[in-house]
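TICKET: design request
STATUS: open
ATTACHED STRUCTURE:
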């Protein structure tokens, strides 16, 4: 197992794990960090990888997670609140998250292409992948969608991966925000605010 970190030279130097320091191809710090999440095959020479956001702490041994792939090359925990990209876009609008013009343009495109409602939505803070040529191609299509439209990767994820992803079932509860920690996969801590 190889642990890596994306530091963008803002954290103390580490010698215990490989660290990535942000691609200088983008002015956006969001895209600088997101490229590693979406295109791990460009940076890691490995058969499998598990992406976790910086505030996510896995609870199980690495091999335990690969069982979720089953006959897919990617697995993600299903979203705890809803399973629809259109509802996710509406939530982004209500919360004023992301570029609203780009999200609207993206959603209009999906509607025009008759992308179905309630067709799955991932909680993209943890991505379990098998690095196959087909998976790598889909990663690159996902990256193109993010660069063309919104950086909100949960909106483009179900559109790109459609029936190629295993959504890991999530126990649904009344207070869905609590579910980030109420699962056997990981513990999630809130980002520190300045």
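STATUS: resolved
RESOLUTION: sequence designed for all positions
ATTACHED SEQUENCE:
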């Amino acid at each position: 197992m190889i642990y890596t970190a994306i530091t963008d030279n803002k954290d103390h130097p580490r010698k215990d794990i490989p660290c990535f320091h942000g691609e200088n191809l983008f002015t956006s710090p969001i895209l600088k960090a997101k490229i590693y999440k979406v295109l791990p095959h460009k940076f890691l020479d490995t058969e499998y990888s598990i992406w976790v956001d910086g505030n996510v702490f896995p609870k199980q041994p690495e091999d335990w997670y690969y069982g979720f792939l089953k006959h897919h090359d990617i697995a993600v925990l299903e979203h705890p609140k809803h399973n629809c990209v259109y509802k996710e876009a509406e939530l982004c609008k209500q919360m004023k998250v992301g570029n609203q013009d780009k999200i609207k343009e993206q959603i209009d495109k999906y509607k025009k292409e008759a992308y179905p409602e309630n067709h799955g939505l991932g909680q993209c803070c943890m991505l379990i992948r098998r690095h196959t040529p087909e998976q790598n191609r889909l990663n690159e299509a996902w990256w193109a969608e993010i660069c063309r439209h919104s950086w909100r990767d949960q909106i483009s994820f179900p559109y790109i991966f459609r029936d190629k992803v295993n959504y890991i079932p999530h126990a649904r509860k009344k207070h869905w925000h609590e579910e980030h920690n109420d699962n056997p996969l990981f513990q999630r801590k809130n980002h520190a605010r300045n």
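CLOSING REMARK: Residues 51-186 form one domain. The chain has six helices and eight strands.
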